[in-house]
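2024-03-11 09:14:02 INFO queue: dequeued item Putative transmembrane protein, len=190
2024-03-11 09:14:02 INFO validating residues
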Amino acid sequence: MGRDFGHGFSEGMKISHSGNQSVEQAINFRIATLMPKDFSSFKDSVYNEKTGSYVPVAYTQMVTNVKVDRSTWMMVAQVISGLLAVFAIIASTVLFIQLIVAINKSDIFNWKNVRRLRWLGVALLLNFISEAVPALMNDYELSSVFSLSGYSMETSIDSVMLVILGLVSLIVGEVFAIGLKMKEEQDLTI
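2024-03-11 09:14:37 INFO prediction written
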């Protein structure tokens, strides 16, 4: 995500200085995630510069430039999702660093860390959602104007690990909370 964001930002800056036609082309760039319908034969080929011959290939992802009628609400939703992703990445990084600092100080089982773990889980899940929404919107827009014979369009959500990490963080936060409640009850009975 970060490398793609940085590359997209630098390319956008170049395009903004070059003129209107380049801006129109940049708006129409789409990433198509494909799945070959038949794995037994490779219908496409690319030129191998090392051997000087064509080699058979099957594409799983490509960048294409097709005219897509974009609605304003989809563009706004993608911008909001991008800003939300940046916020979620920064928040999760800060929370993770705060958690590590607290653990290094041997200040592990307290309510601040429970809140940090819960917010870290929420930030990671929010990051997943903010990356999945634009990917699904891209796939929806692209499927209405682009098709290749021998391939089916696939959804291109790559950040499923964020869901797992977010849920693990929420579970660990709840385990910490239950442990702290039990400790408080035990302190009251003594």
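2024-03-11 09:14:37 INFO annotate: Strands lie at 29-36, 44-48, 53-57, 61-65, 151-153.
2024-03-11 09:14:38 INFO item closed
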